[in-house]
Automatic annotation (TrEMBL):
Entries under InterPro entries matching the protein: CENP-V-like (IPR052355), CENP-V/GFA (IPR006913), Mss4-like_sf (IPR011057)
Pfam families reported in the protein's UniProt record: GFA (PF04828)
Residue ranges annotated for the CENP-V/GFA domain, each copy included: 7-123
Organism: Enterovibrio coralii
Name of this chain's protein: Aldehyde-activating protein
Keywords: Metal-binding, Zinc
PANTHER family referenced in this protein's UniProt entry, alphabetically: CENP-V_GFA DOMAIN-CONTAINING PROTEIN, CENTROMERE PROTEIN V
GO MF terms, alphabetically ordered: carbon-sulfur lyase activity; metal ion binding
SUPFAM superfamilies on file: Mss4-like
Family: Belongs to the Gfa family.
């Protein structure tokens, strides 16, 4: 499994395509225990906001926000796959769905940390 410095990510149906600049590889791969992350069950990694570009299908992205409306969760309107979110805890970062990275199987990643988002102030608002 190779994490490239510039990596492509797509939703399930391919309508949405992202280009991710990942100079340090897969940074901070984790799961979160907040209400949103528990239900979607996604392994996420971090990229700085300027390192994520929507290269195709921006019109197919839909935004979901809840509670404080600070985090911005993006999903494909066609297939429903969560691709990324702008974090509440660090709005200068996106959390990316590792399973959307082309050629990467999140089940092959060892030792995925689970962060305690359920105990954060404003639980369930997207670490």
């Amino acid at each position: 499994m190779e994490i490239k410095q510039v990596h492509k990510a797509t939703c399930h149906c391919g309508s949405v395509e992202l280009e991710l600049r990942m100079p340090n590889g897969l940074v901070d791969a984790r799961r979160c225990s907040c209400s949103m992350c528990r239900k979607r069950g996604t392994v996420m990694a971090s990229v700085e906001v300027e390192n994520l570009m929507v290269t195709r299908g921006e019109e197919f992205l839909t935004l979901y926000q809840f509670n404080t409306l600070a985090a911005k969760h993006y999903f494909c309107k066609r297939c429903g796959i969560y691709t990324h979110h702008q974090r509440r805890s660090n709005p200068y970062q996106f959390g990316i769905n590792v399973a959307c990275l082309e050629g990467i199987n999140p089940y092959d990643l060892p030792n995925i940390t689970v962060t305690s988002g359920v105990h954060e102030p404003g639980e369930g608002i997207g670490l």
